[in-house]
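User: My instructor asked us to take a sequence, write out its structure as tokens, and then describe one feature of it. I'm not sure where to start. Here is the sequence I was given:
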Amino acid sequence: MLVELRIRNVAVIDTVSLPLAAGLNVLTGETGAGKSLIVGALGMLLGDRAAGDRVRAGTERASVEGVFDVAGRETLHAWLDAHGLEADEGLLVLKREVQAAGRSRAWINGAPVSAGLLADVGAQLVSVHGQHESRQLVDTSHQRDLLDAFADAMALRTRVRDAHAALAGCVADEREMLQRSADARRRADWLRHVVQEVDDARLTPGEDESLDAEIRRLSHAEELRALATQAAQAIAGDERAALARLAHARRALAALVRIDEAATVHETTLESARLTLDELARELEHYADAIDIDPSALRKLESRRELLLGLMRRHGPTLAEVIATGHAAHAELALVDGSEAELAALRAARDAAEAALRDAASALTSARRAAASRLGDAVSALLPELGMAHGRVEVRLMPLDAIGADGAESVLFEAMLNAGAERRPLGKLASGGELSRVMLALSTVLARLQAVPTLVFDEIDAGIGGAVAWQVGALMRRVAAHHQVLAISHLAQIAAVAHRHIVVAKGAVGAVTTADTQVVVDEARVVEVARMLGGDADRDVSRAHARELLERGVQLDDAVAPTPPKRTQRRGKPV
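Assistant: Let's start with the prediction itself. The structure tokens for your sequence are:
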């Protein structure tokens, strides 16, 4: 349970420490005193958006800290251990800080965590029910969520949603395959023409470049042969050729070496040059002999090049793209020829996905159907206690034309809240006060199933008063037998049944307005209840009326006795 809530520099709040007890805690105060700020600060601690405009004017940062007693909550301890966290002697301290610039930080027992992780652990500790939930109650999707929570069917809903997504994927695949197949059939004649053209050409990558080189060589065959022959003769032709002239140099170097052996290196170099030139002359002669002056071969190569150029104009612009176009045309034709087999496989997958969705939706429908009557009966049983003696709520399942991501039916809450009235959807018959009471009845029923130890009711008693207000307070006290309850209320009847009564008051410190809280007991509580009754709290008659309400509250069956909060350890000191 929430042992203590500490707030610093949030809006008009300077520093507030809110000690809470087991059972029913009621927070009261004048309109505008700051009750909503406390609820907002709690929401910030539980992971709500933390904006810089919440920071008290003239300060740099705001912070909210909650100390929770989590002793004996094995599931939560296992969750903490899985995230590298642990409770300190049974206490868990959550903290959220937001700077005026908008940046926020969060901690769990002093360890920095993300706001998302803080929200995850907060959802296991506190559940907030507010006026907005009463308004949400008329929304059929919210009604479906409530029924599924009561039926413990969230896992089934996830199964349906996954099966629906899988079916949507199969349908999309089949639709895409049908479209591709239709496109291919429309293009089949053209594709066959492309395939025949490209296949008949027997293209090889890079063929166009090698073909151009060969054509260029053959078209200059005579010139190439003449040049090669000329070069060979210049090297080894006659006595004027290079090799003959090198012979003179060779004899001169031989005479030089006989005189100076150190010149041997030059003789060696010359010999190497002679051998190289001799080899070059032979290669040039072979090159000239190999050149084939064949006009028919040239015409054949030019014809091949024209074929390639035509293919590149139609399917290119490069030969590589022509080859790729041929492959793609083959693939599309294969799609035409093999589409029936692939479509059959896709239809089989779709049929299996449809069957899986039907099975999942059927299981969800069965769970909803079994829970609908139980939820209607449980809520209806509480309505007489809330001033609706003939009230009846029924949960209807209405089949949909097609199974959707949330199942095969929509959910509708209908009610008859007065004798002889027609049963109609909640949004068409309930006043704000009636909706608040139905919401409280639903929250009471669902609270029995929730593992969340602390429930917050934020002014869900709006629009009621008199004897009904007393009944609402009594029901909250009953809920407090199993959960710690924090209720924000303007009603004296609800304040009178609290195990702990906390007053929020707005005052001034110097020239600065601030809000503060005080646990009221004895005469101070009498004065506050008298104020809430609308009378003059200083008059004896107003106080007598307040004492009567408080005495009546004490007479209620106390399944949970008020107990003081545990003393916090070192980590629990105020921020």
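For the description part of your assignment, you could build on this observation: Residues 319-382 form the longest helix (64 residues). Try explaining in your own words what that tells you about the chain.
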